[in-house]
Amino acid sequence: MIGFGLLSVVVVVLLFADFYRKRAGESLKAARDRYESMFRNNAVALFEEDCLALKAEVERLKGQGVTDMMGYLNANPGHVREMAGMLTILDVNPAALHLYGADSKEDLLESCGRIFPPDSLDGFKQVVAAIADGRPHVECETVSQKLAGQRLYVILSATFPPSREEFSSILISVVDITERKRSLEVLHRSEERFRNVFDNAASGMALVDLRGRYIRVNEEFQRMLGYTANELEWKNWQEVTHPEDISLTKRMIISLIAGQRVQPLEKRYVNKKGQTVWALLNIALIQSESRKPLYYITQVQDISRMKEEQEQLREKDERYRQIFEADLSGFYIARPAGELVMCNKVFSDLVGFSCIEETIGMNLCRFFKEPDLCLRLLHDLADKKKLEHVEVEFIRRDGAVLHVHLNGVGRFDSRGELIEVLGYLMDITRQKNLEARLLHAGRAASTAAAGGVEVI
Questions:
Q1: Are 304 and 338 in a shared domain?
Q2: Same domain, yes or no, for 51 and 176?
């Protein structure tokens, strides 16, 4: 009975062992199938590589005293190429075939030297250094190329096992970042161009955060206000704005945030010395892709000199206007054919009009008693450049005759063509009338004296 019982136990143990062996085999097969499925269907390019020889070479170098593996690799590029040849690619997935433009696995495996050009060795050196340092994972950016020769930028990733034997099957993923890399390069070039334009602009440029603090300023803006970049980057725009123009600038910013188009604004800054600096301000709001405001970019054109010149011109115009209007002579400006474009009140009064506006637009020749004489004088002016002390008779609006002294000077273009007549006239009617009366009285006295003389 005991023997039979022991036999039964042995049979049961064997049955259980066989059961678990089958279950373990099934589990192993299921795990392998899952691995195969993940390997084949992964969207990322995967390479299964035998790195055992490479691992052995790394250990040999460490045994010979190489402690700075990256330094050694940089100093021995020939050995790096030899070590790269120690890798054996065992398998690749369909994503790898697609990435490199291969028709088959065999086609890709036979062309490994083509898909990893010489400048890809920098990435390989990082992999070797990670193995030497005992790191469990490495990720590095490097270059590669398709079988047809198109250059790729990729990220290599690998996880290393704890035991040396497991280096016989290392999975390396290759992620294509070519488009992202190119986009970053385009963005970098764009930023570089913007930086050059910003820094070297002839007008002041500044980046201002949403709180109003300066983030970045160019040299011209520093020159305008007399501050260094470090000094300005601690300031708010209100601190360097003339107090009377702060509210005006705030309204401009509010309109900008509301999405309205804003026009350039003339405003005053206060420089480090406390002096007023006039500027023409343009502001743009920079937003994220989601339309979230990020910061402002401002362009500031120094117009202080222009403002000074405008003020000087205004003062000069005011002086000339006062002289023009107060002049006792009739002043006028006419076109070459005689059309009046400007005159003072004395002129309009002389010719019998109540205001300047009624006189403007009329032809000067209209007031000549002899219109043909007017045309001859205009012709002479074009030829001789000026007229001096020409005595003519004018006809007022009410028909009265005026005796005037006429003077004029021509304004000419670069070709010598007359483009404008500047002239003035003085009323000498009273003088002429007085001369006439005196002449008449003299003649009468002569006649009377002659009548009283006795003839012998």
A1: no
A2: yes
